[in-house]
């Protein structure tokens, strides 16, 4: 069976440059919050069209620190509610909880898998202060409707862009600059992946950026002077240097993913399989995952395995059914639960061998339930 994601092969393309970057950091003698982090933050902010990018330890910390930063600014207070989709990875909810806020889980849109703006609006209550729009599987959420909704109700609009590096809307604006702030993960499997845990947040809010820079570094802007009760969540020099090597490939890799997705959409033809909806704006989906739906998912996955085709489930348990959020177990979110029982991700990544693509297509078409 071929790999679901060939990370080693992806990184081999830049092996010489990655090795040089490692040696540059090694020889510098400076390994935390140095020149590499400064340079990557400038470059990534520019790539996203935001005034600030702030490197942190991981994607969860990026979201948490955005929310904590807004608490420091008085825009959020303990116990305030934040609306988010139930079918996201649990980190989206964990960030809300870690910041002392209350997650409000709502249904996604059945066609895009992203948060349903109508469901978000219906969930707004007297303590609602923010919406987190997750660009799930690499597809931009309906930001124009969500932005209008946030403006009508004076809510913060935050992007969970952990899967959407480089996604572009119809006006040419990039994920990371479509809300008040955005959290990114650079976990190795992401479209822009480090060689370990890493993350960043982007914003054009100068006041928020100032607070987060302190919060990520023990609440300090000057050594041994601590204005806030912060944390240690700093993108390290090595990961920043490696990400700088990989960042210039991001647009080409996104196009390679779109090309592969187009092949799947054009050639997989099976009434048992419900393919993802192609976006009207091709650049608005960077296809972090190619996720279809099948009512006989377990049978499909077993069939694909017999044919030598790997697959994964993103995500098998919705947030409100996780033990960590047992208090939400009685929520009525039928679409979220149905999706959790039907979604299946096919392999899709830059450099995927043509024979593997063909095998995947043929195996999907041969499935008979």
Radius of gyration: 21 Å
Strand content: 5-15%
Uncertain runs with pLDDT below 50, 5 residues or more? none
Strand order of the biggest β-sheet: 1-7-6-5-4-2-3
Broad shape = globular
Quick check: average pLDDT?
98
How much helical structure, as a percent, in the residues?
A: 25-40%
Q: Helical segment tally?
A: 13
The description of the largest β-sheet is: 7 strands, mixed
Please give the oligomerization state of what you see: single chain
Which structural class fits the helix and strand makeup?
A: alpha/beta
Determine the N-to-C terminus distance. Answer: 21 Å
> What is the chain-wise order of helices and strands?
HHHEHEHEHEHEEEHEEHHEHHEH
Give the number of DSSP strands: 11
Tell me briefly what this model is.
The protein has 369 residues and is an alpha/beta fold.
């Amino acid at each position: 069976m071929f790999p679901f994601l060939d990370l080693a092969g992806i990184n081999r393309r830049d092996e010489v440059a990655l090795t040089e970057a490692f040696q540059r950091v090694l020889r510098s003698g400076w390994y935390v919050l140095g020149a590499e982090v400064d340079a990557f933050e400038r470059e990534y902010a520019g790539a996203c069209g935001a005034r600030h990018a702030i490197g942190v330890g991981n994607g969860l910390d990026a979201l948490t620190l955005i929310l904590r930063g807004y608490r420091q600014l008085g825009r959020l207070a303990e116990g305030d509610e934040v609306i988010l989709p139930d079918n996201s990875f649990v980190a989206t909810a964990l960030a809300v909880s870690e910041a002392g806020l209350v997650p409000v889980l709502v249904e996604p849109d059945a066609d895009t898998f992203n948060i349903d703006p109508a469901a978000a609006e219906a969930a707004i209550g007297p303590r609602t202060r923010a919406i987190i729009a997750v660009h799930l599987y690499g597809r931009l959420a309906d930001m124009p409707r969500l932005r209008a909704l946030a403006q009508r109700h004076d809510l913060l609009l935050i992007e969970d862009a952990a899967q959407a590096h480089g996604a572009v809307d119809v006006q040419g604006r990039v994920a990371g600059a479509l809300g008040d702030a955005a959290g990114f993960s650079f976990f190795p499997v992401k479209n822009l992946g480090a060689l370990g845990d890493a993350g960043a947040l982007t914003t054009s809010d100068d006041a928020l950026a100032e607070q987060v820079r302190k919060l990520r570094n023990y609440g300090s802007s000057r050594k041994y002077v601590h204005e806030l009760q912060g944390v240690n969540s700093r993108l390290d020099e090595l990961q920043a240097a490696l990400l700088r090597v990989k960042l210039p490939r991001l647009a080409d890799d996104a196009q390679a993913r779109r090309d592969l997705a187009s092949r799947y959409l054009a050639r997989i033809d099976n009434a048992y399989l419900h393919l993802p909806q192609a976006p009207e704006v091709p650049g608005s989906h960077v296809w972090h995952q190619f996720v279809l739906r099948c009512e006989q998912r377990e049978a499909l996955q077993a069939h694909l395995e017999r044919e030598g085709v790997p697959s994964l489930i993103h995500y098998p348990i919705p947030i409100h059914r996780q033990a960590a959020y047992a208090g939400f177990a009685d929520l009525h979110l039928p679409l979220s639960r149905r999706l959790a029982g039907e979604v299946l991700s096919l392999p899709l990544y830059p450099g995927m061998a043509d024979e593997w693509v063909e095998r995947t297509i043929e195996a999907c078409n041969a499935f008979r339930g």
